[in-house]
Amino acid sequence: MDDKVKFELEFVIQSSPQLLYQYLSTPSGLSEWFADNVNSRGELFSFIWDGSEEVAKLIKRKTDEFVKFAWEENDDGSYFEMKIIVDEITSDVSLFITDFAEEDEVEEAKMLWENQVASLKQVLGSK
């Protein structure tokens, strides 16, 4: 993981943690905003974009809190995680993304996440 840089993004989402979790953890939910199509066989999730397929393993999850995936072709320890954070005072729900990218691709990766989360918000009817 020497050449990859970890980055984190936070998005406020107007949704219940339970509903949001369904869109982060199920093939049908992920197909609505993250990829053109998503299939799963146990812990393996196939993400399909424009006809190309990427496979990620679901490493860890906690219901209504987070999911953590690692792309199968990566053996560098990198992963991507989508965590639901609820503010104790305001009850605002945030989606906290942790991902890795090559140093010269971090800005592009952040923009990709911003676009994906914009699609998620649209699906959820969130602003």
From TrEMBL:
InterPro entries: START-like_dom_sf, START_2. Pfam families: START_2. Residues 1-125 form the START-like domain. This is SRPBCC domain-containing protein. It comes from Pelagihabitans pacificus.
